[in-house]
Amino acid sequence: MKRHTLQLVASLAITLAACTDFKNTTQPQTQAEKANAEVVKQLIKEEQAFSQLSADSGFKKAFLNYLANDGVLLRSGRFPVEGRENYLPFYQAVQDEGLQLTWEPFEGTVAASGDLGFVYGIYELKVKQSGEVLKGSYVTIWKKEDGKWKVALDTGNPGLGPDSTRSK
Q1: Run means of pLDDT, 10 residues per run, the chain, 168 residues
Q2: At what angle do helices 84-91 and 59-66 cross, to 10 degrees?
Q3: 3-class SS shares of the chain: helix, strand, coil, % to 5
Q4: Which option is the CATH number for 2-20+40-158: 3.40.50.970, 3.90.550.10, 3.20.20.80, 3.10.450.50?
Q5: What sign does the dihedral 111-115-118-119 (CA atoms) show?
Q6: What is the Cα–Cα distance from 142 to 57, expressed in whole angstroms?
Q7: pTM above 0.70?
Q8: How many C-beta neighbours within 10 Å does residue 153 have?
Q9: Nearest to 121 by CA among 139, 147, 95, 142
């Protein structure tokens, strides 16, 4: 079942990528494009609220709040964490009180159906005691679950330098 979930999420992401423009146009032409642009703005606001909850209450609580029931977390050097029931045991040993994980979304896209989308950007993990900052890039795939945006899949790539800046 868990393998099926991962395959389903991957298939949805590929379908979304194939069916949707990757760039948000700043001046949509049609009514449908205008509606889609509004949904993208809503999704990015949800991503920002997710990051703020992580900053305020810790990333364990934030992910528990936003992870879909069958959501998948892909972490470097680890097997996929599939589903909410496996999330807490995965992070049980992690003490996030000394860490602050935040992220900044750059762009997002939502399927024409309005119930699946993705956002990507950069994240920062700050070690509070030492002040060390680790940066990387991420992508979050979102889906509607009971009328609310929930994280279907989240993954990140570490390795941006502390002084890395975005080039367009």
Answers
A1: 48 46 57 87 96 95 94 92 88 83 96 95 94 94 96 94 72
A2: 170
A3: 40, 35, 25
A4: 3.10.450.50
A5: positive
A6: 21
A7: yes
A8: 25
A9: 139
